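User: I've been going back and forth on whether these two constructs are worth ordering. Before I decide, could you fold them both?

Assistant: Sure. I'll take them in the order you sent them. The first construct and its structure tokens:
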Amino acid sequence: MAAGNPHAPTNPSGLRQSITAGSSYGSIDSGLSSSPDQAGYFDRSHSAGPSRSSANPTEATALLGSALDFREHDPVHEGPCHHGTFSPRPISPQSFLGGGREGDSAAQSESEAEPATTSASGPGREHEQRRRSRPKTWAARMRSKKMSTSRDLAERHGIRDNALMYMSYYMPVLVWAKEYNWSYFKGDFVAALTVAGMYVPMALSLADNLAHVPPINGLYSFVFNPLIYALLGSCPAMIVGPEAAGSLLVGTVIKGSVDKGEGGDNDAMLHARICGIVAGLAGAMVLIAGVARLGFLDSVLSRPFLRGFISAIGAVIAVDQLIPELGLQKLAEEARVGHASSVDKLRFIFGNLDKAHTLTFTVAATSFVVIMVCREIKRRLQPRYPGVAYIPDRFLVVVLAAFLTYCFEWDKAGVAVLGKVEAASGRSFTFRWPFKWSNMVYIREAMSTSFLIALLGFFESSVAAKSLGGASFAEIQLSPNRELVALGVANIVGGCFMSLPGFGGYGRSKVNRSTGGRTPMSSIILSGLTLLCISFCLPYLYYLPKPVLSSLISVVAWSLIEECPHDISFFLKIHAWNELGLMFTILLATIFFSLTLGMAIGVFLSLLQVIRHATRPRIQILGRIPGTNRFENAEANPDRLEFIEGCLIVKIPEPLTFANTGELKTRLRRLELYGTSMAHPALPRLRREDSNRNIIFDIHGVTGLDGSGAQVLEEIVRDYRQRGVRIFFSRVPSRDSKVGRTLVRSGITELAGGEDHFVNDVSEALKLSEVEEGGEGVVN
């Protein structure tokens, strides 16, 4: 070892010096491996003749190939040996990437096939032949590979494999309807009645104040969406319905159409059509994602993005509701600030406070205070007195306000009321297919907003479903992909009747479960109650004060904002400045400009973070813990690790794909030059050229290798071999794996030096590199 070497071990290890070119077979065997399991990586049999690498020598052929035969030719007993320090242990592969040479594998397959053939005779064999010769039905042709495996498992365990079993998985109603009994009905009915009392008035508020569509379209979302989800959804306790964020985004699309001159502020029919188009588009996107098995998409948007965007939506909603709560609606229409930013609306509000309607503000403020006080009381009392959850405080506030308005004629005193509630077409439940060619103009305008509605809706539904679980029925397993399909179908059906987009909400689902709802029957009952409300109760909603509806929305806005301080304090505590920057960027862009701009900036920054994280290689240079055979990340522990003279040990802890191999060569070059990937490339070379005579790749974490990754890796190995650098791979997947097959087919195996250069661990690679260096010295 050269004097003054900055990478010399503090305590020189005898690991690489334990084997020399002149070592005998016994000494090599004792120094490297006494186990046939480990020796299997170096597959050479004297009886089998010379290996392929020795028969056709190339520049990559190991010089001491015949000296490294570690296989036990004279076993003490037949069968696998389980003796040794670490016995018992599983049987290791018999060569690089698992399995011996082709001839050995073929011989083994033939020897194993003979007893299988003799034992497979009789009725079992005849049954198998009849089953294979039977013509395939359409159901059999549609079976996936996973279904075929499931069929074999079912037959092995005596379970009947039929189409109903798979249909029950994709249509959970076939499971819970079969197990449903009347003891569940009381709890489901009470829960549905409680949810209807609390959230049906909320649906009216969302439609009228946020989405700017007829109030009945909000009720439609509680008719179709819960019903469809009860049939297809995998979370029995979840209640699907309209949400504040989705309703506000629908309102932005409608406002955009009005600003472009495609209709007026009072064109209820156009607004309802656009609402149906947005709901249908969001449903179609979610459905396609479910069919394509994209249930992991709820992880695409980061928590800071969601918190920033939801808080921004809460702030926008709160500012929007101040105008009707102060009785400034008509004045705002004259000033045309309805489509302005939140800052412009706040400037308008403060400039016209002296013109606020006193009675309107009193009704709104009283309703808001009563609901917030009841909410806090229920939160504190519910752990000790669960029955308080049954009190429909919002429903009572709405009924009392409507009754007082009728008795004291507040409508004649200037308080705005809901008025006649009817469908824009004049007839309830009018069917309109949202994807007609005549709607293409609105479809193009609503595409991006519908995508965000679908993403936010699925994320909230996923959080609610994971929190609630599916414990009511053991056979119903929660599945993100089936959730996507159920929500997509529900919104497409709702969009055909121009309903608001509906997704799962944790708040109302928690109310449903805490008040006795145990099965999807509560969703079906809720759908029926809403249908009865539309059929018989709409005339009684005439005197419902709009300030009360605005106060209900303000409560929702408060709930959207109240979690933001907790997240901000947490990110401040851990110094997560990037996350805080993203949150405030979205919040400020939404408040000062528009919801659309805040949405676009947030999605762009989130996707940029995802792409940056996915495309950055995470290769590490490894160093040895002195006195051991353990290796760790040298960049994380530079002071307590030692480097091996003449060797660069590189760990690749992730799959190699087109996304993360773009900078792989550059990162490896930095490791060669500086011993760390954190050094600036302007520095001169810090590691000598002879410090990289041997490159050892630890690829245990490479669980995937696509074509682009294999091509880049092949170019790297080829470049090293042309420079005279020896290449070793440790902890390689088996030959039967996709990674193993790709390594062989791409020529990387042969280029690196054959199967001899693919070993069990880094220690063996170090020993082998020392052996080959000594062998070259003898030959030379």
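The second construct, handled the same way:
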Amino acid sequence: MDQARSTISKIFNGEPHSYTRFNLTRNMEGDNSQVEMKLSSDMDEDTGGKGAGEHLNHNSNRKPYVAQKLGRTPKNLCFMAVATLLIFIIGYLIGYLVHRKKDLAPTCDDSTVIFDNGAYIETGAAPLMNWAKVKKLLAEQVSADKFDSVFREFSSDNHRAGSLSDEVLGEKVVKRFREYGMKTWIDEHFVKVQDPPASGSNSFSYKGKQERPTGFLSYSANGTITDSVLYAFYGEEENFRLLKSRNVNMTGRVMLVRTGRISFAEKVANAAKMGASAVLIYPDPSKSSIGGSTQLYGHVHLGSGDPYTPGFPSFNHTQFPPVQSSGLPTILAQTITLDMAMNILQQLGGANAPQDWESSKLGDDSDVITLGVDNVLREKKIVNVFGVIKGFVDADRYVVIGAQRDAWGPGFAASTVGTSVLVELARSISDMVENGGFKPRRSIVFASWSAGEYGSVGATEWLEGYLSSLSMKAFSYINLDGVVTGQKHFKVAASPLLHGLVESTLKEVNSPNKAGSLFSEFAKPNMESNVLEPLKLDNAAYPFLAFSGIPSVSFRFTSENSDYLYFGTTLDTREKLNEATNNKVPQLAEAATRVAGHMVLRLVHDHLLRMDVEKYNKIIHNRVAQINNKVNSMLKMQPQLLPKALTMQWLTSAAGSYGRASRDLAADIRSSNMEDIEMCRTLNDRIMAVERNFLSPYVSPRESPFRHILLGSGPHTLQALHGHLEALRMDHPEADADLFRSQFALATWTIQGCANSLAGDVWSLDNEI
């Protein structure tokens, strides 16, 4: 045998230690198995101690050497026969293994390969554990008794974004993830935020009395103004329309509005549209338990992320030209206490306020106020931290679950509870994988965000930094911010694609308040009206959905339909949350963990993503019907106000195309072969593309970052098109018929493009789609 090996080595130019390598590469839990075969040994065995180089360099002796070899014909023929046989066997083995590689490609069933050494190596498909067993494993992991210690670990009296306390909490999260055996990493950003002035407060003066509120609104314009006060209730668009209908002059006025219903940023933006010079925001008097001297904190950027790097990540400011988000306000904005606001309201003159506005007067030109805002713009380093549980089949597809870590003060409901649920869920699922035999098909990324209080800055910067990758691979986001603020109601804001998943989850998770499921307690008889609510701009899940096109969900136990009373204050403590929940914070946190756990496990357990691709049909149909009705009405009554030759044919056709394409995809899903892993992946990719394709490709992420034409914000949305029609009907000076026609055409093709994508391969398209 040694002589045969020596002969083979001579065939390969006599080089010593020659290797031939071949790989058996399969998607086996993310690993590659490599087989290495050594085909030669020391040449000295055949050359009597002479190296191969020495032997081959004697060219003058080549003929005698050959003759000598030929002279030993029988022996050499034997060697050659053995060598030929070896080469044939090796070739056969290579061919066999290549053939086996195809045969053993992962399927949706369990499968193993037994090599000669008896080792069992999985081929890449995760065993499909019975869903009932998965639920049981999670139930065994999650317990209310475990939360008190976790709450203590992640509580802090002051952990504003970028502070040392914020970083320390991040390090604790990373440490926990590592203890659970997860791969961890961090993501640093250098962002610009506004903090209070060096003096510690801004100031205002009204009728001889000066006040210095210590609360503030980040991203307000700076300066000093002196103008008259105008009471505008909640600062909603309908409030300003009512004032306009009464011929109230709003230009150059300081709007006095209360908290609630919409975000601070939306209140300021609405006031700016009316020509206001400033906005003062105070606590809603109907929530009087907040106290008369409680300070408010927040931001007024009509968007998310760092407003000084709009549309791109703040990894390094020096790489980009100085720009600002179009959502930054141009007017002053400041919070005041309830006592300060009541002092102003009680002295207002002018016209009577609407009866349901809870104030006697609106204010007139004599109600003059001087306001000075001098916030300081600072650059801060913020750190997002991550851990991942890798999937066993489609490891490059992942669900992201996250919670903000920072807060204005203690932030117990705003950040501590969500962070604790995040960590407990990471521990539970890690243990299910390590010790319970559960193998997720897809990966789970756990994220702890910083700078959430400044407008989901940490999360948005991460999205902007990795948008091209995330939009193709992240198939869902689950938000844990503010998951426990009460116990009387349960609310969910989600992409329509996830409504079915939400419903099945509520039917499976028991209520912490009484016997029965969450569905039976909160959702009956109509989940849509009792549980579902719109996903708002100030929700951390919003940029995932409207900016990145990733189906997202946010949920909360709450005592009221409005936001938690103590958000944006320094009173957000464990004691206040105990009062709001009747001392059931651990039990509600356990229930929130189960809700998030059931959703995330369903998304990584099933062969196909549990998303209802037909859910958007009704939404598109309703929006198109609204536009159609408005156009038909104007064609009859005011045709001169519409663009020439405007027709609804193509928008209606695009809506029909989406409906057919989504039904065809649903049919493909129902008739799919679950044993075909490639088919499963292809169908999942088509499902993932639904939300992403609703992002308008015709608008700039910098000018209109929330590009979703159905759930986003901006002139490109179908809702904005309907509003533009109304402006044309009213002959509003800012209405532009040509601009409407352009937006109309782009929205039409966005819907048609989404339908084309749903149809699958390009050869699947025809005139009906």
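Notes on the second construct follow. The CA atoms of residues 366 and 480 lie 47 Å apart. Confidence is low (pLDDT under 50) at residues 1-72, 98-124.
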